[in-house]
Amino acid sequence: MNLFKTIFRFEWIQLKRQYAQLFALALFLIIGCYAVYSGSSVIKHQKTVIDTLNQQYNSDYELAVRKFTDTLTPESKAQAANAGVPQAIDFRLPPVASNQPKGFASLAVGQRDVNPYYQKVRSQVDFLDNGNMELSNPSTLSAGNFDLSFVLVYLLPLLIITLCYGSYAEEKEQGTYALLTIQSASISRIMIYKLLFRAAVVLVVTGLLSSIAFIAAEIIGATSLSDILLWSYITLMYIAFWFAVCYFFIQLKNSSIATALKLVGVWLFFLIALPSITNAYLSLANPVPLRADLASFARHAAEEVWETKPAALAALFNKNNPQYNSSINPAKDSTQNGQRFIVGYYDLLERKVSGYAKAINDEIEARNAQAQLLAKFSPSVTMQYLYNAIAQSGRDGHMDFQRQLSVFQKKWKHHIYSRQLAEVNFTREELKDLPKFTKANPTSSTEILKGSLSIWAGLMLFLLLANWNGKRESSSINL
Amino acid sequence: MIRTIAKNEIISAFRNKTALWLAIIFYLLAIVAALGGWKNFSTATQQRRQAKEMFRHQWVEQQANPHSAAHFGTYLFKPFTFISLFDTGLNNYTGNTYRVEAHNQAEMNHAVAQDSDTEMRFGELTIASLFQLFMPLLIIFLCFRSVSAERENQTIKLLFAQGLKPSTLLCGKITGNYLLVTAIILPAMLMMLIATAIREPGMLARMSYFNLGYLLYFLILTAVFVGISALAKSSKNALISSLGVWVLCFVMAPRLVAGFSSRLYPLPSRGEFNKMIETANSKGLQGDKDRTERQKDYLKEVLSRYKVDSVSQLPLNFNGLRMQYGEDYLSKVYLTINGQVEESIGKQQHIERLFGFLDPFIAMQQLSRALAGTDYNHHIHFHKQAQVYRDEFIRKLNLNMAYEDRNNLRSDYKVGPAFFKTMEDFSYSQPEANWAGCKHQLSLYALLFWLGITALAIGLISKKIAIN
Amino acid sequence: MLQAINLTKTYNSHTALSSLDLNIDKGEVFCLLGQNGAGKTTTINLFLGFASPTSGQALVNGIEVANNAEQARKHLAYIPEVVMLYPHLSSMENLDFFSRLAGFEYTPKQLQDFLARVGLQHEAFEKRMGGHSKGMRQKVGIAIALAKNADVLLMDEPTSGLDPKATAEFTELVKDLGKEGKAVLMATHDIFNAVELGTTIGIMRRGELIHQMPTSNLMATDVQKLYLETI
Fold this sequence. Notes:
The structure holds three protein chains of three kinds. Chain B has helices spanning 2-16, 18-61, 66-72, 127-143, 148-152, 155-161, 166-199, 204-231, 235-264, 270-283, 291-305, 318-355, 360-372, 376-404, 417-420, 433-439, 441-464; strands spanning 74-77, 97-100, 108-109.
């Protein structure tokens, strides 16, 4: 314990006096704070957009309500009679389903800048057009976000490397190593304590940065506690991983330049080379399908369904949707002007196209399953996945939103169809009870804990390698 | 003298085998990148060709009412240039399909990024990423000791005692290392040129500029990193500073600049954008009347042109004309509002290009994408042609309704292949290399600026080389 | 205190030290003379445990170094040819740090006494090592050795590069240490200095100890003559 205290005390004195290292630490903090600001501004913008949409909805709602009672002119009087027509409500008051960002999304923007995060829900689904994709500068998307997760995933390892690469070699190069071995019982313990000191410094700086980030992103309170713990847990684990890497290379006892080169090489491998190679493999093995045949199929299906005899289409619709059987009206249903023909057209088209779309979506899902598997080999990509998972800003978060959206869309469709088919209008009071979308935001901690296993495995691998190398070396005394 | 120093530098690089190993790693990665790029390029090209043929076939062979045909429309696919296999640039982030349909001005859709997860943000292995990111590291590894080691071995004293001028020492070091870099890179560049000459000779000019640009870029970097080695106290400091510069300029700066420019010129959200189009279309652009009024005026104009009093007396189907009138207005609205968005993105891009004067990596990245035809300018170049084609396409269908169909929009009016065949297929013409160059003049100037700066710096640094 | 029994060290085919037998008692100051490569530093490294013997034994206080380097080192203090310390720590801090490693916690007053004893100027106590001259660093190195309070001192050409005044101060210091009952093994090139401070002198050549004699009735010139004849 005395040795531990001595090393920490004198390492601290030396750290305080080494401007290069202090500069690196300060720079890291400043960059980190900027990243918090930068990530927050992206998410803040998204929140504003969602707020604007909600306000717009509210004013559209007011307008829709007013239409019921506005009977000043003959024109508006005619409109008032039709104010509650289900199709009109579907057109005028589509509910806004938004993927509200969690506070953590400011720290890990993830794919939120690429994926649409809100949608006006209507009774029909358009499989071909994702017309709600955000307007963006592709060059900004390709550069990526400068958020806290970027700083932690990319730059934190570099900080660790900067602090650690010389911890053995510099003793050697400045000539203090011999004296250390003479003065103390255990040089290997000194080396480990020196690394622990650096780990403590990194932990303090990262902890400080994270606290700033949590406050800035307004992540406070008991509800966020488990997320905060998860975030801290995976960050700690990543720091431990990089210290294990540094430990392995330090105890190879190369010169400081050689150690620095090797550690930078490892960084390059994990952060740039490995992900880009797996991406190359991914795009070869599982290319994103062109949706051309889906479009072609959709056109074909639309023509086919439109050509179907109204009576046949209505019969098919009734078979598929027995819940609406109470509104069957054979006379009306056998014309192209009947509601059953219109609803039946969209219903059957949706059924047909969604079957076809599923094949393409399955292909895309297979691609992403493959990507997740490959990510396990790359600690950096795994970390980004985990940060995104906590923030629910990754593809999984988006798909989760899409699933909830799809459930809600069905609910909305039913709400509209049940009236449209029965040709019953909404009353003014009923507008208050229109279905509203609320998104559930569960973060699965088991998923994150499971996802972190591969990094632990990597960490253990480097420690074992170091241990094995140490054993091999201890037989021959090395100075 | 420069020759002697350069020769010595090359010999010592060969002796310590660093250059050799780095070159081997570079070529292994380059082969993977090129083969992968080729496979992707040929698959994508084939996919697009098949899809294009399929849609053309379906279009030509249909028996349909022109308006419902317009509703279903068709799809256009952005073709890739051959060089894009070396620099995929923004291709994953820009949509690659364009939907042609009535009543709607579409955006380019289905970007690969939308169907991918976060790993895509870590970058792709392409020849360009090797040139832009890996080669600079290779140059750092070659150069970081170049001057500082002379000082550490005390040989610098001997060199100067022999009458060598410091600036000559620097130039010799730069020349030697640059020749090494060129020797490593030239075979790859030659192969790229040959492949282009065989596959797409029209792109040869672009490919040559592409290579020349990178040769210039490597020269700048060699000079910068030799300069750092000359200024640093020790080889270790030279290495750490060079790597610091690399991380700052190559890893952090692109993200910083992108964030900065997008905050400076914010874009409207999709919701706002759609709302603006919708509002402008129904209420009219500035100074224009609203939709109902516009259409009344138009009807009056047509009636007076044909000197009749009512629609039924017109020798044509007014609905066809009315729809085309609506399309024309929508097109005007779209061009105005989308023009504002494009202008904002253009301003963002301009900021990025300006940052090329601070960071040669950004300049090179911009130039490289431009020459490979994978930058934003090429994207909108395609989008514009597609949009013009779309307007013509819809016009032709509407006018057919107007002048051929007197039935007033009944679906039993149908036309067949004889008509649909007269509608030309879309064929995209790639802009010339000069066009791409003109759009990115600034990036080119930035690189030349850097060349000038490094030339000046050699003079300044050579006065500052410490002996001890 | 220090004992070498048939101590031999070969590197590949080269014999650095061959069958050295040596015994240094309490209060004895043993000076090893010899050309570069004669085996002086190898001998010291074997006692320090920085190298392991090919055959034979090196014993410190009866502890065999090869098997028990850490135990043996507790009894050793070492002054290398060029003392290098932490440039960002002051003389006091370096001394404090290395003493703590050896298990000693001194008060500032005691630390200052050690530094004063080795003749370091007062102004240099709180100055960082980075600005120290070689002589000053050497003095701090000796202070560290003193502060460890070890029975045995190993010195590898400690006076090389010191100015005459510093050398004289150093000589007095080592003499005092001998009187205090420490065993000292010092490798040196300085014959006159060796005769002045040593109690015993050994002359080495190509890994062998050729001559070994007490200095009590020796003149430096005699040793110089013998030295030149030997090598």
